[in-house]
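Chapter summary example: a protein plus iron/sulfur cluster.
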Amino acid sequence: MKKEISRREFMARITAAGFGALVASTTNAWGLEAITNPLATYPNRDWEKVYRDLWAYDSRYTFTCAPNDTHNCLLNAHVRQGVITRIGPTMKYGEAVDLLGNGTSHRWDPRVCQKGLALTRRFYGDRRVNGTMVRAGYKKWYEAGFPRGADGRPPEQYFQRARDEWVRMSHDEGAVIVAAALKNIAETYTGDEGKRKLKEQHYDEATIEATQGVGTQVMKFRGGMPLLGMTRVFGMYRMANSIALLDSHIRGVGPDKAMGPKGFDNYSWHTDLPPGHTMVTGQQTVEFDLNSVEQAKTVVVWGMNWITTKMPDAHWLTEARMKGTRVVVIACEYSATATKGDDVLVVRPGTTPALALGFANVIMQENLYDKEYVQQWTDMPILVRMDTLKYLKAAEVFGGDPAVLKQTFIVKDGEKTPPPIQQTVQNVVPEKLRLEWGDYVFWDAKKNAAQPLTRDDVGKNSKAVDAMLEGSIEVTLADGSKVRCRPVFDLVKEYAAHFTPQTVEELTWAPAAAVQKLARHFAQEPGTTLFALGMGPNQFFNSDNKDRDVFLLASLTGNVGKIGGNVGSYAGNYRTALFNGAPQYINEDPFDIELDETKSARPKQYWRAESAHYYNHEDHPLRVGNALLTGKTHMPCPTKSLWFANANSILGNVKWHYNMVVNALPKIELIAVNEWWWSTSCEWADVVFGVDSWAELKHPDMTASVTNPFLLVFPKTPIPRIFNTIGDIEVYATVASKLADLTGDNRFNDYWKFVREDRTDVYLQRILDHSTNTKGYSFKDLHEKAINGVPAIINSRTTPKNVGYDQLVDATPWYTKSGRLEFYREEDEFIDAGENLPVHREPVDSTFYEPNII
Ligand code: SF4
């Protein structure tokens, strides 16, 4: 038998014998002259063990990765000598089931992306926040007893943000400072004296009035993208709700008069909200799980880079294409997704509303539209008065009261809206609105007469089967007068006629022939095309029209609400309504806390929502000339404190950043941040609480998604904390304990009782029990499964999830006045702006006809 030589010996011989020996030795060792069995003479491979050992690990546990990309991957962390050395997919998504035992498939595996694989770089990164950091000047301001000038402003010397030194301290010490600052700010701006100070600081009069002299109104709280952590991130709003207790102490009022602070928005703030969806459907956003693409014959990927941004779901698109789904890509660049396109339209940015109208025009001109769908589901048969430009109301023609509705629950004055799990119909409308909306009218071409149309008359219940869609008609009203009316279809068709293929080519750069060809293709087989839109086009000033126009195209081709034919808008993970029992947690009444874990909470919301856009605009309401366009319900208050978690978007990435840091931030007297990665937001803050990363959460949490069907738990993790951090939820509990010390009110402590007792699961179970999509799940079971790498499937009637399915299958109304997909907007604001029809307008931020403004 030949003697094996080790790699070390091999190298030594080379060095000792020089090149000639190398050749001889190589020839000998590798048997180059007689290759009968090369493996028998291959050098000893024990050195490879070093590399194989790289994969060895001592233990393994699961954690959930949940940035705002909507995927929420449950991952395995491999630990060696106490350090996470490797991250990988659990490969167990195929074992997921829903409450009825319906399963999914292993085609969902592996669920991970390169960013998830590289997360160790983040968990152990040198920008992790270690302990609580307080700005030196801020600490001095606190120690000096929060001195202020006559106008209420703190001396500038204490507020040298981003230039100052940082002082590291315990989380407890940091919480003492934050609690004291919150109390001081609320006291300072309470009463007439508080209003006087705000006036001297030159805030807009309307915003000062909006405070009603209540100091807590100038405090703003924001859990960033709260669906990403139902207790951890949404906890910021629970914290806000508890601040009503502070107001009750400062003003000496009871629960009936106490006011909580303001909670900033997320989805709309990020421009993720496509407002056209709400205008047409009444839904916040319509979308479908991305694996729906397999059920479609055509998918139009519109301003969305599916391959790059929907990483673990990119395969659904490519596999659907292999199975025959036609992929149409509309983008303003040749994107990664464009490489998968059967048809690719590269367009001028911001012009796709014109493209949608161009498609709609071809379809209407050539009579290719799905007439039945239009009659059953859209407002296009409804008559519009040509004298007032308002919908013609049934009461104007037939007199009498609005019809009694079967599919809408009317909430009478003084009654409470039932919580979601007690609602028996999907539509809940206050009586005042029902009376204001009334019913509608269409012209029955067969009967040659006007007919009433109610919210119940949709889908298979639609009476508008023979509705006149084109032309105009003179209708006799109940008082005997006559009014000329036209159906919405006729108005839309006239407008869309401007968008001939040639005009569309000039506007958008999409070839005229392609506009014509694709329009005919979309109409060929109604209900088989998915329109997947990205958030990029949302950034343009005409984004509401973009979505109204896309819905128009989709409705003409029967593509709203079907599993393989629908419209979707994809940005962040926003739909907290997947947990519509969340008020059990975020809005538990701080004056009436339920300390028995077996009982439900009694929600009462004290905090009020405010759009962060006003803060980004130095707390100015929208004034144009002498007109104040911001209404009372949306009037912001001055921002004097801002505490946020889980996002760099409200400060670090804020638009108009220079103005923010130079002019807006100096007016704010407390900026507190919960973070685990030192961001620009931290740089401009006063207090930064270092919190746990996903790898080291000690309090479990949960989330769900708008693009996949999984209900995900963040399991408690066994690894010791990597840095000196605590959970976000513990930060709230700690600050609350300091507020309890300052006010002597133990309800601040009770409010976080189950966090203190390491029983956050009690709050999570309450959310599950009260949410339509999760009632019946046990958090304990979900947690156990997640530890073993298996998620659950959310109960959503269909998998894949699909907004609009209920409407179509059950013939229930959409969440609009007419119960139909509404393309006409009769409100004065829309008529005044010339946008009562879905139109195209050259966007000011993407045009060569105007200076670029952003
Ligand atoms: S796809 Fe998103 S959630 Fe999944 S591993 Fe990557 S970054 Fe994490």
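Key point: The two ends are 79 Å apart (CA to CA).
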